[in-house]
Amino acid sequence: AQSVTQPDIHITVSEGASLELRCNYSYGATPYLFWYVQSPGQGLQLLLKYFSGDTLVQGIKGFEAEFKRSQSSFNLRKPSVHWSDAAEYFCAVGALYGGATNKLIFGTGTLLAVQP
Amino acid sequence: GAVVSQHPSWVICKSGTSVKIECRSLDFQATTMFWYRQFPKQSLMLMATSNEGSKATYEQGVEKDKFLINHASLTLSTLTVTSAHPEDSSFYICSARIAGQRTDTQYFGPGTRLTVL
To answer: N or C: which end of chain B has fewer CB within 10 A?
Structure first.
């Protein structure tokens, strides 16, 4: 069955430090992969996505993610974190799910705290 | 572009009443919209897939008679929580997929906080 695992429930980094959020997926074919960010009480904003091609994808707000098929991973990175990056981050895989309609399967999320 | 709105942003209702939540794609047509439910400190759980002009497809365990979905136009889907009870209190989020796009990006609304007293 398709699944997404985000091993880190909560991460705290210092402002200006680098960040890596982990995401592992389980899917039989090449998946569509997404990272979304959610601020408190808000909906989800798309950070970046991978469908095919270059395995290193650039997103908004200085984020990037790398698709590694051999590791079934799609980790999110940022070289220098800003206080405004504090939020919850969700990794998701889009998968054919018993029909023509692709659905998103979300990980459990990683809550990022940024300390001064 | 690709903006999705939801109305209301929050609602408080008495147990036994029905509540309607609207999801609109503001600058694109969406043949498919999705409704999710999110409990505090948890991930999004897909409730149903809404296709314009046809019946919604519900995920296993979701009561279709309780969560009525209507996708009457290419820019509007509604979720009605019928005879709401306190356990229905949650954050409901919709998303929309751009019609005709081969890729599968979903654009999310800001969510609706439902509190049932």
So the answer is: N
